[in-house]
Design goal:
Strand content: under 5%
Organism: Catharus ustulatus
Oligomer: single chain
Protein name: Regulator of G protein signaling 10
Distance between the termini: 57 Å
Keywords: GTPase activation
GO biological process, one term: regulation of G protein-coupled receptor signaling pathway
Shape: elongated
GO molecular function, one term: GTPase activator activity
Length: about 170
Amino acid sequence: MLGYMEKINDGEGHPSSSHQTLKGTSKWATSLESLLEDPEGVKRFREFLKKEFSEENVLFWLACEEFKKTQGKKQMQEKAKEIYMTFLSSKASSQVNVEGQSRLSETILETPHPLMFQKLQDQIFNLMKYDSYSRFLKSDIFLNHKKSEEQEENSPEAQTAAKRASRIYNT
């Protein structure tokens, strides 16, 4: 189980280049969906949720997204059990607070399917969207990241690169 949490905690293994995230905060501010599509956005949102003691919500959401891509019944059973034990069981180490979690019994884990956690995942998504996300957009984590992006965009190096690019494309 620890291995699974570590895999989620490593920032999803996506490299993030400064070019890719240059407009990150502008994109993140458009919707929670846009934020969750950007590895750097997920990293910053998790940092914020950790301070709010609700990081398990985004970890559960990410685990469900990963689960949907799982192939093979045995692998699916293992991942389903991992998600259940980590987030949904009464003894879960990172229990999420969802309605109906008690109705999801361990017997369902024997016959897993890609969308078996969808209803619970949607509840968590809505909780993040209408609660945590709006606070994140006002948080120091978001605002400081936005400020550093703006400083980077206005730096002499960035302007010089833009001028060079415009000369190249306008010749």
